[in-house]
Amino acid sequence: MTTSTTHEAASPSGERPRVVLGVSGGIAAYKACELLRRLTESGHDVTVVPTAAALEFVGAPTWSALSGKPVATDVWSDVHEVPHVRIGQSADLVVVAPATADVLAKAAHGLADDLLTNTLLTARCPVVFAPAMHTEMWEHPATQANVATLRERGALVIEPAEGRLTGKDTGKGRLPEPLEIFDVCREVLARGTTGGLDLAGRHVVVSAGGTREYLDPVRFLGNRSSGLQGYALARAAAARGAEVTLVAANVALPDPAGVKVVRVETTVQLRDEVVAAAAAADAVVMAAAPADFRPTDPSGTKIKKAADGSAPAITLAQNPDILHEISTQRARAGQVIVGFAAETGDDTGSVLDLGRAKLARKGCDLLVVNDVSGGAVFGSPENEAVILGADGAAVEVARGSKSALAHVIWDEVTRRLPSG
């Protein structure tokens, strides 16, 4: 059995991580204030580099007050320090939020007509773009070509969110929520330049949460899954460059930045969406907790208490075994399937004994085994597990953040993905 390594964020110099926050001229520039606040309050040394257009939306005094340092606005200030080179060279991370179509085009073609685009050319650290623009601009072939070019060069371009845009317009192009962009930045900083975007060009599917099987319009059979581990897996995969589809069952969490979220309630709905998404996926991680059974005849009205105190008899039918289905009926050659096993151990065997039996029974490549005795793990920000492989591998992951476990799982997945 091997023990996993952890993913810690640190500047190569051992000092506070140095982040350059580039802000381009879109209405979403005001949201970058919240991103800046989260970065500074969590101990990052942030230099804000707004474009001239961005300063029309949010003025330099705001950026200075929130960052606690002067704002770098042009190549002509403090020329003796050569800011157009120095800022990018000394950064541990550059994040552009919002990134307009104009900035994406300039970055893709190597134009450098202001301080931000000069910084992008000189940066040798990870670069994250968080696009925000109208749907038509995002979907235009020129923008899509520029995004593809940036991704090919190793930049992380987050998929924009869907929702309300400027005015009455809605669609894809909305800036992801600042908290979610912040989480992506932390993920990227934690991996640094060594991990890279090893899932770039890959499509992965993650399920999360717990399904509900309705007894009547009010009551349901459910479980305690919070969805936190599944969301951590989706967020980590996006930070590693993957195209991510997250099938979420009854989860009350904000959408991770750059992730397509499909919401479901029942196990049958979960099965249908996972199978559909798996058809084009390189890897599927089933972190959701689907109900094993469902009522065969749910009531169309609320079930009332009987006057004689008797309880209604409920007949249950077995739900589809999603993990077994996608493992034994692979949609693509080389597809990696990961399951989860929440075990407590019983008279038939220990937690790991039951996990190994489940791994063989389901036919998946990896099984993440959790000891949930006493309700451990559910709703907690931390987790610990043993990752069992069909090839006999066993990786023990010590208790830590669910994000750390997520990265170890993706490490194991990438080792098993076919090259190319």
Topology overview:
Blueprint: E1 2-3, E2 18-23, H1 32-41, E3 45-50, H2 60-67, H3 83-89, E4 93-99, H4 101-109, H5 115-122, E5 127-131, H6 135-139, H7 141-152, E6 156-157, E7 161-164, E8 170-174, H8 178-195, E9 203-209, E10 213-214, E11 220-221, H9 228-239, E12 243-249, E13 259-264, H10 267-278, E14 283-286, E15 293-295, E16 316-318, H11 322-328, E17 336-343, H12 351-362, E18 366-371, E19 382-389, E20 394-401, H13 402-416
Parallel strand pairs: 1-20, 2-3, 2-4, 4-5, 5-6, 9-12, 9-14, 12-13, 14-17, 17-18
Antiparallel strand pairs: 7-8, 10-11, 15-16, 18-19, 19-20
Helix pairs in contact: 1-2, 1-8, 3-5, 4-7, 8-9, 9-13
Region (Phosphopantothenoylcysteine decarboxylase): 1-203
Catalytic activity: (R)-4'-phosphopantothenate + L-cysteine + CTP = N-[(R)-4-phosphopantothenoyl]-L-cysteine + CMP + diphosphate + H(+); N-[(R)-4-phosphopantothenoyl]-L-cysteine + H(+) = (R)-4'-phosphopantetheine + CO2
Region (Phosphopantothenate--cysteine ligase): 204-420
As a whole number of angstroms, the C-alpha radius of gyration is: 24 Å
Order of strands, widest sheet: 1-20-19-18-17-14-9-12-13
Overall spatial form = globular
Query: Uncertain spans, ≥5 residues at pLDDT below 50?
Result: 4-10
Structure summary, number of beta strands: 20
Structural class: alpha/beta
| Count of DSSP-assigned helices | 13
Q: Which architecture of the largest domain does the CATH hierarchy give at level 2?
A: 3-Layer(aba) Sandwich
